[in-house]
Fold each of these.
Amino acid sequence: MDFDYTDDQKALKDEARRFLADASPISVVRGVLEDPARGHDEELWGRIAEQGWCGAAIPEAYGGHEFGYVELCGLAEELGRSLAPTPFASSIYQFAEAVLAEGSEEQKQELLPAIASGESIGTIAVSEGPGTVSAKRVKTQYANGTLTGTKLPVADGMAAGKAVVLAMGSDGPVLAVTDLAGPGVSRQMVETIDPTRGAATIVFDNAPAQVLGSGGDGIAALARVQDRSAVLMSFEQLGGADRALEMARDYALERYAFGRPIGSYQAIKHKLADVFIRNEVARTSAYYGAWALSTNAPELATAGPAARIAGCNAYWLAAKENIQTHGGIGFTWEADPHLHYRRARHLGLTIGSVKTWKRKLTDRLEAQRAARQAEREAA
Amino acid sequence: MDFDYTDDQKALKDEARRFLADASPISVVRGVLEDPARGHDEELWGRIAEQGWCGAAIPEAYGGHEFGYVELCGLAEELGRSLAPTPFASSIYQFAEAVLAEGSEEQKQELLPAIASGESIGTIAVSEGPGTVSAKRVKTQYANGTLTGTKLPVADGMAAGKAVVLAMGSDGPVLAVTDLAGPGVSRQMVETIDPTRGAATIVFDNAPAQVLGSGGDGIAALARVQDRSAVLMSFEQLGGADRALEMARDYALERYAFGRPIGSYQAIKHKLADVFIRNEVARTSAYYGAWALSTNAPELATAGPAARIAGCNAYWLAAKENIQTHGGIGFTWEADPHLHYRRARHLGLTIGSVKTWKRKLTDRLEAQRAARQAEREAA
Amino acid sequence: MNFDDNPEEATYRARVRAWIAQNKPDLTALPPEQRLVWTEGHKNAMAQWQATKAAGGYACITWPKERGGAGGTLIEDVIFSQEETAAEIHDPYFITGLKMLIPAILQFNSDPKSAERVPPAVRGEEIWCQLFSEPSSGSDSAGIRTLAVKQGDEWVINGQKVWNSGAAHADYGLLITRTDPDQPKHKGLTAFWLKMDTPGLEVRPIKTMGGDSELNEVFLDDVRIPDDQRVGEINGGWSVVLATLMNERAAIGQSNGLTWSDMMDLASSIETDDGTVMDDDSFRDLVADLHVDLEARRLIGFRILTAISRGEQPGPEGSAAKLLWSGGTQTMMSEALDMLDQYGLIQDSNLSPRAGAFQQRFLWSCGLRIGGGTDEIQKNIIAERVLGLPADVRVDKGVPFREIPSGR
Amino acid sequence: MNFDDNPEEATYRARVRAWIAQNKPDLTALPPEQRLVWTEGHKNAMAQWQATKAAGGYACITWPKERGGAGGTLIEDVIFSQEETAAEIHDPYFITGLKMLIPAILQFNSDPKSAERVPPAVRGEEIWCQLFSEPSSGSDSAGIRTLAVKQGDEWVINGQKVWNSGAAHADYGLLITRTDPDQPKHKGLTAFWLKMDTPGLEVRPIKTMGGDSELNEVFLDDVRIPDDQRVGEINGGWSVVLATLMNERAAIGQSNGLTWSDMMDLASSIETDDGTVMDDDSFRDLVADLHVDLEARRLIGFRILTAISRGEQPGPEGSAAKLLWSGGTQTMMSEALDMLDQYGLIQDSNLSPRAGAFQQRFLWSCGLRIGGGTDEIQKNIIAERVLGLPADVRVDKGVPFREIPSGR
């Protein structure tokens, strides 16, 4: 039983926090926020790549540093906390995980080294319109080695050089990987609720692409990849939620009303206690997910969705109550709470809404229950 | 625009409150609670009947006093407030409304005078087992003028002399009225979460019965009746919720912790403010329902369910937070808060759960929306 | 219980409905971006509308005729507002002055100079704003620090105001200052009215998190105001504040914005494998909950109206209605984004459903929970004024203002 | 992050699992109604089990051997408890004495008379109960009014205690009294241990709203206790209270009761027109929410365990876990009743699903939110001890106890 970071992991996290305090202060975040043409901070991305973070969970054989998944989780927590405006999530939690989990040996060899070094940025293009993505409603076509269709929103779609794309092949949905700088691809920035994380509409018109790995059910493959992304993303959410709670706590200590700090009123104290509880649920669920991810445990099938749900709920509550605790100031552009409010919902939507994940979790709990019953009946 | 009781209605309510303070003090409620063999207080029932309340909304032609529906709503509010252990709800909001709304002229003549005088008690027997009642799953049969099947729980099923029973006829579900003291009927008390409101299992074995009114779709008829019951019941819920809030408020004023009344702490103040808001939603929704009921407005189709939902939610919140505000004392048998906790859930389940009513409300909102669209397209 | 107009009300309603239809401003003449509130084009159109109302006898309906009003009843005023809303006329410019500030000034001042300000306001020629809140006095609304010092017949004023809605468009303001810091908090305040172009006064727009700039900061640097612009007694400013707040409560807020039926429309437009989101049981539960709460909010308005039409002072139901509205809107918008799933993060008037209204209100709803009394203050009001629970322990009670701890 | 036992832990677990399987009490010998906790039959079986553990070297695992313990580690103690729970052994009788009260007594007293009480408790021969709470000191746990007055070598005690779990079954109690009402609240308290059959002491069971009587009132009427049964210093009783509370926090609660999977079982048993309630989207959302919260509660236990196994003092995660549990249970039971619809109001062990367990816990869940520190107190603990927010204004701070306002 050891349900916490090790001392080494804690040291890595501390170092990451110091690094980000220097490399990604709030001025860097606002630099991206205020300039509609930017989707991330390129200098910051370069410095993060230099740290080797992109390869934290990528095996050395593919150019990574193989620190380990729990270490990557720790970095994600710090990235979330600092609001770092980078395509790290798209490139590492999503693209790299997709290639690692579903790609062929050749594809790993070809694609991962540039991702691990940070030279190349990857993303996943799934959504095509309003609503939950499903096998029945994928319209983008994959045929004769090319993709045709429109994906939006694609997180970091302007910054990325490569994308894994969900498309309908001749035998059903597949995941295909394509070069976004190649022929048949046009893209356009799309404004979102969180300008510190870029997004794009990408139009594929007979764009050359290859199926990831041996093909097979693309929806099932995407689900396996997203279980992994969900855990990593949940640490970003946790980091953000912790930071939002701290901001609220700090403000509640320094802001006075009726002659005493507002943090001495139970309305504020109990509100922030509620946020703390949600953050503890998120922390605990994320840790459990990290264990399942790092050990490839079958529990990932429920731990991934649980981490996602807890992360979405915690960050949303922490972000909105941080604004509320700040009062009028919290509603202004100049104050920082809205950055977390935006980011909380960005992270809460980008690999599917909390509602979508709740359904996924219950489907799996039900399947497990049916399997246990079948086992019992067989016995 | 006049969205409140009139002065006359207020005077009637005040009088009812004084009457119940005398006729139904908490000792009378506890008398029924402590004796498992009783389901209501017979002396109290007699005194209520003497007041003419049973006939408040029954036309004079059928032996009623025809005070009006808003007046009956006011009485319901006071009955709910006092926790009066009587079969009033079953007999008046349900049985009488069923006969009034769906019965033939002959049946009204025959059945209502004894109900209006309080001589006879009626009820409705709908549920047969776990889950929401539906046309597909009614098992009690109506054939050749007799009923066969089992109903449980039937509110006030031991006290009632007559019942309207949902049963499956040859052409689908019907409502049939039967004499519970007659042949082919056996019944047994069933314990519930609220011993101050009796209930029974009733077994029909070829019990003579007649279809209510001209027959027709029994599920649709039941729905029309229940929209009316829902409004009346929501006033009982409102009265109970208001009383539970008052109890909590009074205790918060007299109980001290750390040298001051617990009602001076925001944890308690804001909790009770939340209860107040729910009670205001219930009050407003109930008033709107009373208007729709008293004017036979088509708005009853949504106002009835809305009053029901708001009433269920308000009483449940008020009842549980009343216990919480009382702390340890509130958890004891000797203290009164648990009486409201029990009653809140009794009222919240007895004509169908809040979930069942939410579905009903949305179904109707959707139908209205479709009708408006069809109208627009026709135009 | 009666939801219908009585015969006189119905006659009045029919009359004003026809009049509004005939006289209402034509915004289609404006370029689309100038049809939004807090733009010059919209402001000018509304000023013209106010003048039309004044000429037609529909400005300040409850005021006596000699003051430029119509000598009408409060219920007539409410009916007129309802019909304006139905005709999609939204005017945030004149309501503050005419409903809240000028009535309060006239309650305390009867001098000709104060009275002179009334007719141009009624005719839509002068806009008023409130200069009450300060950086360190939000929920603690008596914690005013802007200092006014008497010099001869003038007052010299230094300090800062904030959250001043429409101050950048306003011609006049009602200002609360501290004139005696040695008195306890509520006892050393004094009110003034002043021109917004008085030397030393500077308005700076505040950009909110949603990107708009309705709100402002106002800086006062040696602003000099003659004593005859004082409102009420020296150190009697708290009474002026309370009078404006009473007027505010009687001014029933216009209902607007997205509601449960918009959620049904959105859900019906989002496909799932089995139909649309409208077929999802869990969404259906949500619709029922939203319907109940938001209809209750609307109906609470009718209960307030009932009290008014009976000549009673409306109670604190308004606080309950505000809480249902602010919390309900934030939850609803968040659910809308979730329904859209990944697509919900797009905020683009060409791509997003309803031109991005759900995303815009998702941001804006934060302010709803704060402006006009935070959620927490509303609950205090309910607990103390309705339920009669004791006020929280007040460490600043009876303490000279300058000695009250104030943090940073 | 590792959920597995380390090799030593795994070895220990295997050993105790085998031992428990071989030695566990056989409740099936009892009549069914005597298998429930707080019955004589169950109590005697558990006393026998405690004796078996003591003989086998598994009683008080963390205590030194000379005190009757096993000289083991806290993690071994936890593993043993987990295995007891897995074997469905629930013992509420000895845990209070052995985990909380006796360790606190021994921390303050080293006299032979106090020490004599240890061996029989370890062997399951004597049950202890806590005599702390009073009618007017619940959340305000230092507000003790039971008065102890010294007369020669004895103390004469008068007052009333309440919410004393198991007092009707207990042989000994640890009692907190007020010995100096002129001191501020926390400074005039003194602790004693006493036999529950001391003359003047009367135990009266309290019937809870659910109908059971685990809790009691204890009346003290001129109860005389020799000074050598005093625990700690005169007026030093608050330190004794704090010591027991620290012990309580380290004693990890056993997990039990209905959870999300029971809700799935129930839902699957309730038919609808389209299948069962399990197919309802809205119920599916609820399952996900319950799973996340209740699994988190379980996992928080592992985090506490991790801290313990690292030799750290567990933090206030316990308060978060308790709030998830208490609120979650009440919500869950209410949802269960709603699922059953009208049938949900039946409370009959023959008719209701799971013999009425949902209805029984529906009532019982109210107590969960109150006992062991109310929801409100838990949130205060989180706000103050974790987040570092200031304590609320304390009007009783430094005030002599007899002058503190106390209402009725």
Note: The longest strand of chain C covers residues 216-226.
Amino acid sequence: HVATASNFRQPLQLLARSFEAESGHKVRISTASTGKLYAQIRHGAPYHLFLAADQKRPERLEQEGLAVPGSRFTYAVGQLTLWAPQHPFQGEPKALLSQAGLQRFAIANPKTAPYGMAAQQTLKAMGLWKQLQGRLVQGENIAQTLQFIASGAAEMGFVARSQLSEETRSKGYHWMVPQTLYNPIRQDAILLRRGADNPAARAFHAFLQADSARALISTLGYGLDNH
Amino acid sequence: MESADISALWVTLRLALTTSLILLLLGTPLAWWLVQTRSRLKTAVEALVALPLVLPPTVLGFYLLIALAPDGIIGGMTTHGLAFSFTGLVIGSALYSLPFVVQPLQNAFCSINPLNLEAASTLRASPLDRFFSIVLPLSRPGFITAATLGFAHTVGEFGVVLMIGGNIPGETQVLSIAIYDHVEALEYAQAHWLSGGLLLFSFIILFLVYRQNNRWSHP
Amino acid sequence: MESADISALWVTLRLALTTSLILLLLGTPLAWWLVQTRSRLKTAVEALVALPLVLPPTVLGFYLLIALAPDGIIGGMTTHGLAFSFTGLVIGSALYSLPFVVQPLQNAFCSINPLNLEAASTLRASPLDRFFSIVLPLSRPGFITAATLGFAHTVGEFGVVLMIGGNIPGETQVLSIAIYDHVEALEYAQAHWLSGGLLLFSFIILFLVYRQNNRWSHP
Amino acid sequence: MSGIEFSFELERDGFQLNAKARLPGMGITALFGASGSGKTSLLRCIAGLERAGMGRLTVNGECWQDSAKGLFIPPHQRALGYVFQEAALFPHLRVRANLEYGWRRTPKAERKGNLNHICDILGIGGLLQRYPQQLSGGERQRIALGRALLNNPRLLLMDEPMAALDRPRKAEIMPYLERLHTEADIPILYVTHDLEELARIADHLALVEKGRILKQGPLAEMFANIDLPIARDEDAGAIIKTQVTGHDDGYHLTHLHFCGGEILVSRIERAVGEPLNIRIHARDVSLALQPPGESSILNVVQAVVTEMLEQGAGRIMVRLDAGGTPLLARITHKSQSRLGLERGTPVYAQIKSVAVSI
Amino acid sequence: MSGIEFSFELERDGFQLNAKARLPGMGITALFGASGSGKTSLLRCIAGLERAGMGRLTVNGECWQDSAKGLFIPPHQRALGYVFQEAALFPHLRVRANLEYGWRRTPKAERKGNLNHICDILGIGGLLQRYPQQLSGGERQRIALGRALLNNPRLLLMDEPMAALDRPRKAEIMPYLERLHTEADIPILYVTHDLEELARIADHLALVEKGRILKQGPLAEMFANIDLPIARDEDAGAIIKTQVTGHDDGYHLTHLHFCGGEILVSRIERAVGEPLNIRIHARDVSLALQPPGESSILNVVQAVVTEMLEQGAGRIMVRLDAGGTPLLARITHKSQSRLGLERGTPVYAQIKSVAVSI
Ligand SMILES: Nc1ncnc2c1ncn2[C@@H]1O[C@H](COP(=O)(O)OP(=O)(O)OP(=O)(O)O)[C@@H](O)[C@H]1O
Ligand SMILES: Nc1ncnc2c1ncn2[C@@H]1O[C@H](COP(=O)(O)OP(=O)(O)OP(=O)(O)O)[C@@H](O)[C@H]1O
Ligand SMILES: [Mg+2]
Ligand SMILES: [Mg+2]
């Protein structure tokens, strides 16, 4: 039984399918935001494996003794992307972001979502944070941020590269933000105490670190941990 | 429609039915007590009933999670706690939808002419008998409102359920979360289908209920 | 309490007050029409009013977002769209809380003895005058219920607001989201304080409203 | 064109209102009929509370309703006073506010009644701060009466307004109603089951039966008609137009003159020369062939038998002519035989003065 | 220990019930009093609908309430029939279900009434499928009456049950109520404003004034007491115990015998030898010093004046003794002077037979 942050639901479904075919084990997936899952695990949720959207929560679980020590690893690294579906713009992203006609710029909530934190760091690094203040709209998580843009309510914003499908990638302007502008968005997984003695959980835990899985994750728009 | 969606539909229907049934069973005596009592506690209880409403559902869910966990106040009374179980969901939904059931009932009870009850009492009807033969039928519109608001609100309910349910397919994953997941995953077509179906289905149910109610009221 | 929380509190109060006021203004004639009409549309309209309830708030929010966007059906009528604006929030909350206002009012109107209206009409009271001098005062409990349910539900509302609000401090960031953020960010102490404060505040308001209502009803 | 002319059709399951008449546009017209005969339905139609039925209604020249032309003046523009059969007080208003409800809505120029005055007449001055739920049945009915009167109506509709009142209370209120229609010239339609009350107050009588107006006419004429159902009533009797001719202060008597002779009644405070209608119950009139000897019966009138009708159970209703004035006497079969009464027999009609009701 | 013994205290703003009496445990006891005097309040206390007040109540030996001992039998266990002043029908039930409400809740062994029979008496057979809102005022009142009767009560409380009914309808129902208490032995407390109705139906009379029982006693005694307020009523009169002594078929008359002589009335279907109470209105009795000549007045009774009371407006109430039976006569001051009436004067009392009400 795997609990995953909402943004990794689809990749996880693909991974689980190939794992099920390979091992014969059955994978159950529950999704919610990382913060909710953390609270649930602390209060006895029946999850075996936890795929968070950040490092902080798995770390804490490890400290609190709710997870198997040393089982933590980074399964994916998020990549921040600027997306402006309605702008057939070519050129410097800074110019795009500085244009006067910009009404609404969407980012995820820096306080609760890792992509939000990254977006904030990026804008600060580009020296645009103050300037954009009044136009920022925050999605509660990165999925909502994408919907702000997809619905046309916001003209552009920072989203995760993994969210953009083939179809959406072909629309409008993209800019993959260089890793130098923000701290890497490491998404950690950890084996929970409940899963410690569960062979299926252990097997899936191992499967996720195998090369085949890493390759799949990479093709879905995530970076990989080099360590 | 994915099989997960179908099972979510079933969980949703079971949850909404169970919750509204339980709410009617609990809300009816509570509302009746509120109408009849001269106790000083009355006003406080009324305010308490409406209170869960003002908390955001996820926050309410968070506190419920703490309470229902194996070491929580309520969960502690059971062996494994009530969080992440269907029972837990029912408790959460019931708490959150309580005011939608109690207040319409209370208003309905309140507007019954006491002369009707007095007349029934002189015609050998005991208090319980009076309640069933006079109060209940005379407050039918209140019950319809209470039941539909309670039912619909549970169907659409989301935050509490997500928090204390854990979104476990087949057990605590309800339709609202399934739709939400589709939206999150940009699977708009599926989201539209599910939402449209839910709306149509609900519309038909509500339409039938209201039509019956309107027929009854024009003898 | 952070300054952001304080401004969220203000936005919340403004939103809840505006929404419940608008709902009462819109819901009253709608409910009255539903009680008076013999139109065939009646039942359909009743069902429609209750419909927004069955959609999960975030999903309703999603559709609203599309409608309110600058190129949406509603947003298209304005220059910049209504998403991420206070006006947009009010529209969303009002739509979602409509049944909580309309149904109690409808029940209250329905339980007025028509003889009272007939008597008033022979005493020179025009239909509008009758409405204000007879219908309104006689359905006070219904109005109290409608107003408190509408208000409380808007305070606690979350999904819709989250979706179409964009969490802009001072404009669309409401208390429910602020509390939610604290919970998500593991700032439990702050979440407890805010929730506790909100509960206490709401309890006092509700208590006062209900006490006044109870006083009125025992002359 | 004075008069209340109407024609209403209203269909209900098991009942059909089909009432058509022209009632006088002044004075008190009583509607009398059995329970369920359609009196309330008729009043509701006149008030404009039953929109469903077909109807035409003209009140003193003003057309209020004509379904054929699509004309329908709504109730609140009809300047009515309607006393409902159930008091129908507003439960959320105190007695004072109930009384003032119509008053406040009357244009200033049309306001005539006076709250304090009406409270005095109805004996409700002490109840002004109460809510309707805190009143007795009769008190509620009086408030409803007061509320209708304070509405400054141009037409008063009263549906058994005194059914819950005791006789002394009625006796206090009735003269006021009479003054209302004589002084303020407001026509009154008055539903009642009580022939006594009716005779005391009405000028005109319409009999309602199975949704129709069976017959209508001036009270005296209707009462003298022994073929009508009301002649079978215990309280049947003739109504006589008289004139006050003098007072006997020593004995507290008043002398009344009518075409057929003189009648003495208990003293009444009316000026000499004033006209006065009195009523003589058929049961209070006894017949003799010779002038009776000394007895406490003061009034003896010479008359001729004009009509006799068997009423079953050995009772006979005799219609007499006393110098052009009709009189009714109810006697037994035995008396009729013993006296050998026939049409044209001259008789002495003895009337107990105290039984005359005004 | 037969009898309805009670003592109730109930405080309301501006009104205080303080009623204490022992009424007979059988027959019909009328409660008579002005509007607002507390009649309804008293009935409600007896029914157990007013828990607030202090009270004690024993009905035919069973203690139903004793605040001092904390005893309070709730209304639904009192086996009552209560006809409310307002009909109080259940709006969600059809007439039939309303009628059967109490009946269904009566243990089978105690069921006595019969739906069809009661519908016939009340003339409501055609209304069974209606809802209360679809009835006329009088129809509603009859259903309420039927519902109370079908509750198989051991005590009937009736609050002006016939106020909305016309006289022929009343005349049909009253004999049934009389039979109810004679045959089924159910005591009835009957509130009415109508002295006529009261005299016809009641055995016992309790006068209610300002929340107290002013005076109570057997009807005949109360009616013959010229000091009571009811003696001032237009319908005042004496009640006389008689016995049927024969019928005169030719003239449709019945001969009645009482201590003071004989009286002829319109034929009544009672067997010879049966006792019968009749009533003679004071206004129907005229006095003479000599035996009167031929007249349509059949009944002349010899009597002696025992008491006289001025009632104002030149009227005098005379109480007579006719061989031990009290009679009342209302005459004018003038008659009194002319005849020189004094206590002890022997007179001939003329009574119009048709004015005798049974
Ligand atoms: N809403 C209704 N639907 C169907 N029938 C009705 C309705 N209201 C009254 N009736 C019937 O119409 C007839 C006339 O009723 P109405 O109230 O006019 O009688 P009424 O003369 O006022 O009688 P009462 O003296 O008893 O008040 C009755 O037979 C009654 O049953
Ligand atoms: N709920 C109440 N609160 C205060 N006073 C009341 C209440 N109910 C009745 N009263 C008062 O108590 C007195 C007695 O009322 P009750 O109804 O017993 O009179 P009643 O004799 O039945 O009169 P009626 O013949 O008019 O029906 C009245 O003066 C009335 O105003
Ligand atoms: Mg009527
Ligand atoms: Mg009363």
Note: The mean pLDDT of chain B is 83.
